[in-house]
Amino acid sequence: MNRFDADTAVVRVGPDVFEGAMSRNWWVVRGPNGGYVAALLLCALEQRLGDPERPVRSLTVHYTAAPAEGPVRILTTIERAGRSLSTLSARMIQDERLLALALAAFSKPWRDVEFHHAAMPEAPPPEATPPGRGPRSGPSIPLHDRYDTRWALGSPPFSGAPEALAGGWIRLAEPRVADAAVVAAFADAWTPSVFSWATPGVPIAAVPTIDLTVHFRATLPLEGAKAEDYYLAVFRAREAREGFFEEDGEIWSRDGILVAQSRQLAILM
């Protein structure tokens, strides 16, 4: 089994209750990466809904405590199931500690009315981009081994760039078709963009996420998607104040489909 599937697997143990486990394979500084936690929550919510005709459109996760390695329990609720849109919530618990709260919307497509004003960033193709997250990317952590990344946008970490911008091509290290759970993980998988603005003299040790929202702008997996496909992820931060900063993200397919948009609030530590 693909490692991502193994580490995000959940088992239904009651009508609304699922069990899974936090794997150290996705660790960052003090615990698991927030995108991994979001993916595991989404897997439970998708199973609870049980309606593939209603793909996820929005997922918001609030992180209340850092999980430890080991079992977790996810309590789910269908808050409302309308004719076209369902709203679900989830609580992740470990040893009676609340780790995360999630709220998600699942919906069928509505009107066939579209416009596309967002522009995919220009970037060299992944084949022309060296593997890795760029020079001076900091010490290796388990999360880095879970992804095949190609730095293509922004300045290297701790280079003192005038703007906090970072991104490049990404896919799982063990290639797998990118469904909604994988894209949720992508939304928090890149080196934080604020690191590009920082310098070695700026004491930023970690940037734990307070909340993460992912808007899924296309039904996933994309039609014709392949396991080996790369996706272009770009992240930027515009304001840091009182120890908090926001980071906005976009995830694009190689042929220019905006797959997801994300925003998170994080702490500068």
What does this structure look like?
With 269 residues, this protein is mainly beta. The protein has a single domain (3-108, 124-267), classed as Acyl-CoA thioesterase, double hotdog domain (Porin). Helices cover 12% and strands 38% of the residues. It contains 4 helices and 13 strands. It has helices at 3-7, 34-49, 180-186, 194-197, and strands at 11-12, 17-22, 56-63, 70-81, 85-94, 97-107, 147-154, 164-172, 209-216, 231-237, 240-241, 244-253, 258-267. Strands 1, 2, 3, 4, 5, 6, 7, 8, 9, 10, 11, 12 and 13 form a 13-stranded antiparallel beta sheet that branches. A hairpin with a 4-residue loop joins strand 12 and strand 13. Helix 2 (34-49) runs antiparallel to helix 3. It is globular.
Question: Which descriptors would you attach to this protein?
Answer:
single chain, 269 residues, mainly beta, Porin, 13-stranded antiparallel β-sheet
